[in-house]
Specification:
The complex is a heterodimer of chains A (about 260) and B (about 300). By secondary structure, chain A is mainly α. Chain A has helices spanning about 10-20, 20-50, 60-80, 85-90, 95-100, 105-135, 145-165, 170-185, 200-205, 210-220, 225-255. Chain A has one domain. Chain A is elongated and about 60 Å long. The mean pLDDT of chain A is about 95. Chain B has about 300 residues and is an alpha/beta fold. Chain B is about 35% helix and about 25% strand. Chain B contains eleven helices and 13 strands. In chain B, the strands form three sheets. Chain B has a six-stranded mixed β-sheet with strand order 5-6-7-3-8-9, with helices on both faces. Chain B has a four-stranded antiparallel β-sheet with strand order 11-12-10-13. In chain B, strands 2-1-4 form a three-stranded antiparallel β-sheet, covered by helices on one side. In chain B, a hairpin with a 2-residue loop joins strand 8 and strand 9 (about 215-220). In chain B, helix 3 (about 100-110) crosses helix 4, helix 3 runs parallel beside helix 5 (about 145-155) and helix 8 packs across helix 11 (about 300-305). The longest helix of chain B is centred in the middle third of the chain and has 16 residues, at about 175-190. The model of chain B has no long low-confidence stretch (mean pLDDT about 95). Classes of the chains: A mainly alpha (about 260), B alpha/beta (about 300). The interface between A and B is medium-sized, with 24 and 29 residues.
Chain lengths: ~260, ~300
């Protein structure tokens, strides 16, 4: 059996576990975009469209919707790779059950991350359907925003999983949400172009994977994507994911193989 | 009985496990033969769990050699684990899945087909008497039921050896007896058992052969009966005192018993004839608060070997 196929077994576990709660998350993933789009795209958007000039004459709804899609993927992924990872190590210890069988640490890591990826793909698909229904998608290229948003998620979930396998307690997770995820959500180009930020903050925003994801998703739904800059964004997200996975493999080993 | 080549199923030579400065397992040697029930008896911190984890190929060997089924855990961990049934000390059951689902998903980790697993899961649930709870979540089950589920789960791959790390620790006496009964049946069916315990009665009931571990070292090896014969007397007189505990037991027991162990809460007198010894003490005028004559156990063996009790 190929090396990577073994990861399907932990994937199956997380899927089985998810089947018990999927209804709740399905409702969340439909309602969340609707609420955000009503408030920001439609509500706030009316004011913005009256007063400001967005590039190329697009509406605020069209501007904000793909950004929210990417940012939602980031939040979901961060959550899925923080508490559940630490729990599988420390509280419910499901990783230890897996490792007593022929499965290896890399299978456990890849299996869990592929489950997160699957959830990201489904949630992003729902998101795209909703924003399309709101009229926020201009181009058929927008469909590519689904895998891109999922990749945004992975570029967070991989390094966060690495951290979760390293940390002893869950205290830091709240701090990560408050001081990393929330500022990124607000200041990485989701709600306004980062060119409006003071120069040092603008520079930081360029370095966040979320900005690259938001920008690429937006270019895709507007149909204004350029090949080279598009590949650059994609490469940046892939690099974050790859480095995150390499780190996670290290911290998983250190924590689970003692 | 050994395998076709006459080699033991598990063989350890000079096996060492270190965690930084701490030496958890300090150069131990042992062999496990097919079909036997073999135990590691020792107090908490003796190195039993570390040894089990190395055998289970989830913890790398620091030094020495370990071979399981003739394979090297460092290289063939996955292959070895495919043939083991592991009952860890701390439960690793999933609380949100049902009892049956827990068994099935565990079988999936071994790559068994769902169809096969459905049949096998029902058989195993029957074996551990959890059929009625098959579709309940695990969380509300009692400790004994969870343990039985873990045992059922560990049998899903028809293991050649079962590794049981403190299988009844934390269970009430009744639940322990149910677990022991299941393990005894497995033993009768010819399943090879390797277990750790700090309960001497568990070791006496289940183990054909055992090693006594203390501070990472093996201090004695043999069958429970051999060990008692070698390191203890047939009987023990346990004396408890109120405030009038005499200091000099040598004086009182001179010529009556072969050995005296003085513990904080009681005094143990080792002799082949407990009644005669207690009678003798009475004649000499020593009157304890209570006198109990009992047979020697592995607890006494451990006390003799290490000067400490198993459960502190």
């Amino acid at each position: 059996m190929s090396n990577y196929l073994l990861a399907l077994r932990p994937f199956e576990f997380f899927f089985m576990q998810y089947k018990r709660v999927w209804r709740g998350t399905a409702i969340t993933s439909v309602v969340t975009p609707i609420v955000y789009l009503l408030a920001l795209g439609v509500g706030l958007g009316v004011f913005v469209d009256r007063s400001a000039d967005l590039p190329d004459g697009i509406s605020y709804l069209e501007f904000v919707a793909p950004g929210l899609m990417a940012a939602t993927a980031m939040q979901l992924a961060t959550f899925e790779s923080s508490w559940p990872v630490l729990s599988a190590i420390k509280w419910d210890r499901q990783y230890h059950a897996m490792l007593a069988t022929p499965l290896r640490v890399r299978d456990v890591l890849l299996g869990h991350q592929s489950f997160v990826a699957a959830r990201l793909l489904v949630t992003s698909t729902v998101y795209l359907v909703v924003i399309t229904a709101f009229g926020a998608v201009e181009s058929p290229l927008g469909i590519l925003a689904i895998p891109v948003a999922a990749l945004v998620g992975l570029s967070f979930s991989a390094p966060i999983a690495a951290w979760a396998a390293h940390t002893q307690t869950e205290v830091s997770f709240v701090a990560i949400f408050r001081f990393v995820i929330l500022p990124m959500f607000l200041f990485s180009g989701t709600f306004f172009p980062i060119t409006s930020l003071p120069a040092p903050l603008e520079l930081i925003a360029y370095l966040t994977p979320l900005w690259h994801g938001v920008t690429l998703c937006r270019e895709l739904t507007l149909g204004e994507v350029e090949l080279w800059s598009g590949l650059l964004h994609l490469g940046y997200l892939l690099a974050f994911t790859a480095v995150g996975l390499a780190l996670a493999r290290m911290t998983y080993r250190r924590r689970l193989v003692v | 009985m050994a395998d076709q080549n006459g080699n033991p199923l598990i063989r350890a030579r000079n096996l060492v496990k270190r965690f930084g400065e701490l030496v958890a397992v300090d150069a131990i040697d042992f062999d496990l033969q097919r079909g036997e029930a073999f135990g590691f008896l020792g107090p908490n911190g003796a190195g039993k769990t570390s040894t089990m984890r190395m055998i289970g190929c989830v913890s790398p060997v620091t030094d020495g050699t370990l071979s399981v089924f003739g394979l090297d855990p460092a290289r063939d961990g996955a292959k070895i684990r495919a043939r083991l049934g592991v009952v860890p000390q701390q439960d690793t059951l999933d609380m949100d899945l049902t009892v049956r689902e827990n068994i099935i998903i565990y079988g999936r980790y071994f790559g068994l087909s769902r169809k096969q697993l459905g049949i096998r899961a029902d058989e195993l649930l029957e074996f551990v008497e959890l059929t009625e709870r098959a579709n309940d979540k695990v969380e509300p089950l009692s400790g004994g039921m969870k343990r039985r589920l873990t045992i059922a789960r560990s049998l899903i791959n028809d293991p050649e050896v079962m590794l049981l790390d403190e299988p009844t620790t934390g269970l009430d006496p009744q639940a322990r007896h149910v677990v022991w009964d299941r393990l005894y049946r497995l033993k009768r069916q010819g399943v090879t058992l390797l277990l750790t315990t700090h309960y001497m009665d568990e070791a006496e009931q289940l183990c054909d052969r055992l090693v006594v571990m203390d501070k990472g070292k093996i201090v004695a090896e043999g069958s429970p009966r051999e060990l008692i014969g070698r390191y203890s007397t047939r009987e023990v007189v346990e004396l408890r005192f109120d405030d009038s505990r005499p200091d000099d037991f040598g004086y009182w027991t001179e010529g009556l018993v072969s050995r005296v162990e003085s513990l904080p809460d009681r005094v143990l007198l080792y002799t082949d004839d407990g009644d005669a010894a207690s009678h003798g003490l009475h004649e000499r005028g020593l009157v304890p608060e209570s006198v109990l004559v009992r047979r020697s156990t592995l607890e006494d063996v451990f006390l003799h070997l290490t000067g400490r009790t198993l459960i502190e």
